[in-house]
Amino acid sequence: xxxxxxxxxxxxxxxxxxxxxxxxxxxxxxxxxxxxxxxxxxxxxxxxxxxxxxxxxxxxxxxxxxxxxxxxxxxxxxxxxxxxxxxxxxxxxxxxxxxxxxxxxxxxxxxxxxxxxxxxxxxxxxxxxxxxxxxxxxxxxxxxxxx
Length: 147
Hints:
With 147 residues, this protein is mostly beta strands. Helices cover 9% and strands 44% of the residues. The strands form 2 sheets. Strands 2-1-8-5-6 form a 5-stranded antiparallel beta sheet, covered by helices on one side. The longest helix is centred in the N-terminal third of the chain and has 13 residues.
């Protein structure tokens, strides 16, 4: 990963210390098939409506969520689709939560310079070992235009 990408991830982690419960989530444990949990609010894709904030999380799909049986590190596989009309870079922060809703690890990913209507596959590894099944939840997604 480039120095700029690492700095972006560090900045994202510092800026986004708060979590959101409106993100999409996928559950999974050791070698399990993930279960998709729909978002509580479905966001429209494309350009934002006047007076409404752009919800870049609509451009990110959690494809799988699992805990590695050997390392006990959670991992989420993501698909990022740029539904905008310009090239953009996405910074993505996820939370890995246990069955009781407690955050047990975090993860981050970056999709660099994604052209309009282009897709990218990204991976977000957890920051800590976990001992139970987890749910992967989008905590914060930012779309940075022109990067």
